[in-house]
Amino acid sequence: MYAILDIETTGGKYNEEGITEIAIYKYDGHQIVDQFISLVNPEKEIQEFVVKLTGINNKMLRNAPKFYEVAKRIIEITQDCFIVAHNANFDYRILRTEFDRLGYKYKRNTLCTVTLSKKLIPESPSHSLGKLCKFLGIPMSDRHRATGDALATIQLFKLLIDKDVKKNIIQQSIKYFDNRHEKFRIQRILDNLPEKEGVFYVHNHEGIIIFIGRGKNVKQETNKLFLKETRKALKVIKRVSKVSYEETGNILFTRLKYQLELEKLRPKYNIIRKIKITDKNFNHDNMLIIDKGRTPEEHAVILIKENEVVGYTYTNLAFQENQISILKSMLTPIENKELAKTIIKKYLLKNNVSKIVRFQVENNL
Question: Which of 96, 145, 175, 239 has its CA 20 to 30 A from that of 209?
Answer without folding.
Answer: 175
